[in-house]
Design brief:
- It is a single chain.
- A five-stranded parallel β-sheet has the order 2-1-3-4-5, sandwiched between helices.
- It contains nine helices and five strands, in the order βααβααβααβαβαα.
- It is globular and about 45 Å long.
């Protein structure tokens, strides 16, 4: 079974772009290390196509070469946080209507090819410089959650889970900057994503 991972720096996590087998040092690598021993007799091929700094539109632009042309059985996607971050860091406007349509296009193109779509919800933790971004991110999440629930085969929510955890545990345990996961956070992402992926293992 071939599984392709699409996303931004959280998925990329320092992967070697010159090595198709490189999974990076984040949740994709953790997930691979946990999943393979569970299915020792299954031919599992995991491919990390995450690209640091990417927004939803970039994934759409490369969807054929990074996913469809690879003939995957499933695609695991985590994307969306940079659409909020770049509004504040680069002054880039976030058109929520276009954002929603792009998400629908992403899912429908993959589903048309008979590919299982597993969507991992992005999250934003309360680092001091990220708190002002929360309102816009929540508007984005409403779209993400609604569209993913309707179109994706599996939807794994993370933001509410992390918001609950950081009520009693410092957010820095999961992300020092509110966005990029610590190893503890990557393990948690992997553990919950595996449950969704296992439902579709051939």
């Amino acid at each position: 079974m071939r599984i392709v991972f699409l996303g931004d720096s959280i998925t990329d996590s320092g992967r070697d772009r010159d090595d198709e087998k490189s999974l990076g040092n984040g949740f994709v690598k953790v997930l691979s290390d946990k999943l393979r021993p569970l299915y020792p007799d299954t031919d599992l091929e995991l491919i990390n196509k995450g690209v640091s700094g990417n927004e939803l539109c970039h994934i759409l632009e490369r969807l054929r070469e990074d996913a469809i042309d690879l003939n995957p059985d499933a695609v695991v996607i985590m994307i969306g946080i940079n659409n909020t971050l770049h509004k504040y860091s680069e002054g880039k406007e976030l058109d929520l209507d276009k954002f929603e349509q792009d998400f629908i296009t992403l899912f429908t193109r993959l589903k048309k090819e008979g590919i299982v779509v597993i969507f991992l919800e992005p999250f934003l933790l309360p680092a001091p410089d990220k708190r002002r971004m929360r309102k816009l991110f929540e508007e984005e999440l409403k779209i993400i959650d609604r569209v993913a629930e309707e179109y994706a085969d599996e939807f794994v929510p993370y933001d509410e889970m992390f918001q609950g955890l950081v009520e009693s545990i410092p957010y820095t345990e999961y992300s020092e900057d509110g966005v990029h996961p610590t190893h503890r956070c990557s393990r948690l992402i992997a553990n919950t994503a595996i449950k969704a992926i296992r439902k579709h293992l051939l």
